[in-house]
Design goal:
It is built from 21 helices and 15 strands. It is of the alpha/beta class. The protein has two domains: about 220 residues, D-Maltodextrin-Binding Protein, domain 2; about 200 residues, D-Maltodextrin-Binding Protein, domain 2 (3-Layer(aba) Sandwich). The strands form four sheets. Strands 9, 10, 11, 12, 13 and 15 form a six-stranded mixed sheet that branches. A hairpin with a 2-residue loop joins strand 1 and strand 2. The protein is globular. The two termini are about 40 Å apart.
Length: about 450
């Protein structure tokens, strides 16, 4: 199966677009039914994104469940563009979805606090075997205020430091283990006419990977956990200021070249730079690997390297900690007429062997325990194992910041970060912009 290159990590749903108030035209439909009718007539809806790569596994889960259940599940695909808006409108009406696809964190926090979601904690408590099927770091990333509101729905997407092996050989360098070593590679690459880091700076979300990792390495996961929890003054933590200063220094060193602000994610501009040897490195999610397999297969086969983000000297963060997107989740609406059937669907399918195998064949690495025996079925077993090992060994897996905070805070944060990369805002300005939006 050919992975799709979609705008902004196909599984993210475009929070920024939702904040801009995309129109709600083009209603959701599935199998000739009204997608906003909540589960009547012995059936319940499973809202997903309209993506071929995802829906092979989702449809398979629905079909298997329906063979055994009197209450039937119905898949309801929706375009990425505007999905969060449609979900927001529906959750505020009497036409809520029964089961819906989301990103955990800020994408569902308001629904949980407004008591619109089924608390899955009692179900996990009653069926420990079900809970134990999932990797704890990923399952816990779907919690809100200590309660479980989501079940992992697909693979894991950590942010990875990719590098061009041939370029590294020509430069005489090894993958960086520390920030100082990273800066040495930056200077050497620039001195040899190579862009140190590819960056699609025309889309602010691609820049977010930098403060996410730097803040974690400098101050540990609690720095951003306090921000996501809405703790007063959390943005003023010294780790935020230091991370922004380090980013500004990296930009001024020429770490991203001169034209990064005009490079867009759509079209694979940044990915092409590293594949063609014009850039040495690319800090990006694991989807970069599968995109390269599709778009630049020879590079992916011979020269695409990957490693952990380096440590920061003096930082207190665990070097095995990772950031990115632990997975996507399925949540259940409290207003559903078929809560028991919806939960039964999640229990039967989300960690089933058939479901896991479909994701592995699609190039994803599901968030389940003891996956090693199934790795041979992965599109690329070596990379699948690397991702799996990275996640299983991680003491924490920080959800991408723009997904962890609520929608009203995400866009101001991205806007301020883009100004940092453009040299228009210093660390104090970045902190103030986010404190004002909090």
């Amino acid at each position: 199966m050919v992975p799709q290159r979609l705008p902004r990590r196909s599984f993210l749903g475009l929070l920024g677009a939702a904040g801009a108030g995309i129109g709600l035209g083009g209603g959701l439909t599935a199998c000739g039914t009204d997608a906003t009718s909540s589960g009547g007539g012995g059936s319940f809806q499973v809202w997903v994104l309209q993506e071929e790569s995802q829906n092979v596994a989702h449809q398979g889960a629905v079909d298997r469940f329906n063979k055994k259940s009197d209450v039937k599940a119905r898949l309801v695909p929706s375009p990425n563009d505007g999905y969060t808006d449609k979900l927001h409108v529906s959750m505020g009406s009497s036409n809520k979805p029964d089961v819906f696809y989301n990103w955990g964190g800020g994408s569902i926090r308001t629904y949980a606090r407004d008591d619109l979601l089924v608390d899955l904690t009692p179900y996990f408590d009653k069926d420990k075997a079900w809970k134990d099927k999932f990797l704890p770091s990923v399952l816990d990333a779907g919690t809100i205020d200590g309660k479980y509101y989501g079940v992992p729905a697909r693979g894991m997407q950590p942010i990875i430091l990719f590098y061009n092996k041939a370029v590294f050989t020509d430069l005489g360098v090894q993958p960086p283990r520390t920030w100082t070593e990273l800066l040495t590679i930056v200077d050497r690459a620039k001195g040899n006419g190579i862009i140190p880091f590819a960056l699609a700076g025309g889309d602010a979300w691609t820049e977010l990977v930098w403060p996410e990792y730097l803040v974690d390495r400098i101050g540990g996961p609690d720095v951003f956990n306090n921000i996501a929890a809405g703790k007063k003054g959390a943005w003023k933590d010294p780790a935020i200021t230091k991370a922004v200063d380090m980013i500004r220094d990296l930009v001024q060193r020429g770490g991203f070249g001169d034209s990064y602000a005009s490079v867009r994610w759509d079209g694979g501009g940044a990915s092409n730079l590293i594949a063609q040897g014009k850039a040495a490195m690319h800090l990006m999610g694991s989807w970069e690997y599968t995109n390269q397999v599709t778009d630049q297969p020879e590079y992916a086969k011979t020269n695409q390297g990957f490693t952990d983000f380096p440590t920061v000297e003096g930082g207190v963060g665990d070097p095995k900690a990772i950031v990115g997107n632990p997975t996507n989740y399925f949540s259940v609406s409290k207003g559903s007429k078929h809560v028991d059937a919806a939960v039964a669907f999640l229990k039967q399918e989300m960690a089933s062997k058939a479901y896991i195998d479909q994701w592995l064949k699609a190039g994803d690495v599901p968030a389940v325990r003891d996956l090693e025996p199934e790795m041979v079925k992965a599109a690329d077993p070596k990379f699948a194992k690397a991702v799996y090992d990275m996640v299983t060994k991680a003491p924490s897996f920080q959800l991408s910041w723009d997904q962890a905070v609520e929608k009203a805070q995400a866009q101001p944060m991205l806007d301020a970060l883009q100004k940092v990369f453009l040299g228009q805002l210093d660390a104090a300005g970045f902190v103030k912009a986010n404190e004002d939006a909090a």
